[in-house]
Amino acid sequence: MTDTPDPTSQTPPAPDPGPAVAALETIVSLSKRRGFIFPSSEIYGGINAVWDYGPLGVELKNNVKRAWWRAMVQERDDIVGLDAGILMAPQVWVTSGHVASFSDPLVECESCHRRFRLDELPGAESLTQTELRDPGIVDRLGLRCPVDEGKLSAPRRFNLMFRTHMGPVEEEAALVYLRPETAQGIYVNFRNVRESSRKKLPFGIAQIGKAFRNEISPGNFVFRMREFEQMEMQYFVKPETASAHFEAWMPRRRAWYEQYGVNPARLRFREHAPDELAHYAKKAVDVEYRFPFGWKELEGIHNRGDWDLGRHQQATGENLEYFDQATGEHYVPWIVETSAGADRAAFTFLIDAYREEEVRGETRVVLSLHPDLAPYKVAVLPLLKKRPEIVELCHRIRDDLKRDMMAVYDDTASIGKLYRRQDEIGTPYCVTVDVDSLEDHAVTVRDRDSMEQVRVSVDQVRRYLLERLGITRD
Ligand code: ATP
Fold it and tell me: How many CB atoms lie within 10 A of CB 390?
């Protein structure tokens, strides 16, 4: 619930590689200009901490979710998927501990009444959880309002769950919560999934879905939002094996970010200090990324012990134990969780792919996104849009490609500009049809990263691209 930095617990101490992009604004403006991410409800002045994904953003985020699902479900025999409801029985959140303690330390300025998360105030970033609960901490450190220097209140715990009412009566009895994490939907379905899929331990349940948190100080673009999407996997194991599974999941999850192009130097693990651990956690390690605003959590890996199933079993009276046929034992499984943010991951891939290069005296902006993540895989471009035969051949090629991949046609600028535009949104290949194509039945295929151009015959273009993009089809 907090990202209090604790440099002493980070293993190993990594030198600061610096961010991939110096100013966050570079990514924010590219996102807006090219249609990746827009402020929500912008024509009404916006709504704080909610963002909308535009035509390119939705492709990128879908690709990120697909890549995660592939690694976590499709390629594993021991993990199955789930899509549970956002609204759940309210008692779930009492049992899980969220009603009592899903909170952050809030301080309020007594003159301007702005509210801040205490551990994000300058001078309070490295406080321990015990210190963050200390009523005298603000006075002791002499903390003041960062906006108008006003006096700040003592910290109080602010619960981050959004509440609403179910059914036509807005009364306390009809109170429900928008889920603040997807994990609980998995725990309450543990028995349903295990019995229906006939899985033996160890096995996992994976889920991607929206979560909502009424964050005190959202910000840094899509890093901290009030409505966001999580990609969570809960791995159910025999208690004695939980530590070993935890250790095995750490490198796997880090490797996933590297596989999809994140510079390994900008990734590190950070272990939570004992007093920073959430109420359920036996051990927690964050995968952190070096964002333009510092090292921050990308994903959490947690050993949750038997807290979740044990508590739900106790609260419902339902038997959530596992019967181990091999040993004849009955026990409540322990859980190792990997909890990532789809928005944070997409944001990270976007930042880390951003490059500015000098090409013949001009600056070329390139998003060197992994081909699996790139919104468009190929753009088909006419050298001369006034020649109907050229345009027609472009459409024929595009129609042939679109069954297998996102392929777009564009003729709204000169070829040089069209290349730059595709580079800037990360399209790995451009196919250009020129006058010669009408004679030699070949086109130019340009590679985004090397800018190399090769001539490929029209009837081989599809196979050529499928091979290079790693899409296997007959
Ligand atoms: P933080 O310390 O940043 O508040 P947390 O430790 O509470 O985060 P978890 O509860 O472990 O985060 O959530 C798992 C993942 O969900 C995070 O690693 C992050 O990728 C994502 N996530 C959590 N809160 C947000 C948010 N407000 N906006 C976007 N993504 C989020």
Answer: 20
For residue 154, report the distance from its CA to the centre of ligand 1, in Å. Answer: 25
Q: What is the mean pLDDT of each run of 10 residues along the chain (474 residues)?
A: 42 79 97 97 95 98 98 98 98 96 94 93 89 93 94 95 90 90 98 96 98 93 97 98 98 98 97 85 95 97 97 98 94 98 98 95 96 98 96 97 97 96 98 97 98 98 96 62
Half-sphere exposure of 214 (CA within 13 A, CB side): 16
Q: Check whether residue 95 and residue 113 sit in a common domain.
A: no
Q: Note the pLDDT of residue 471.
A: 79
The total number of structural domains in the chain stands at 3
- Cα(296) to centroid(ligand 1), Å: 10
**CA geometry: angle at 191 spanning 187 and 193, to 5°?**
85
* Ligand 1 centroid – CA 324 distance (Å): 34
Q: How many CA atoms lie within 13 A of 402 on its CB side?
A: 11
Cβ of residue 380 lying under 6 Å from some atom of ligand 1: no
Q: What is the CATH number of the domain that holds 452?
A: 3.40.50.800
Cα–ligand 1 centroid distance for 221 (angstroms): 14
Nearest CA, atom 20, ligand 1:
341
Q: Which domain holds residue 179?
A: 24-99+170-350
**Residue with CA closest to ligand 1 atom 16:** 341
Residue from 185, 226, 210 nearest 88 by CA: 185
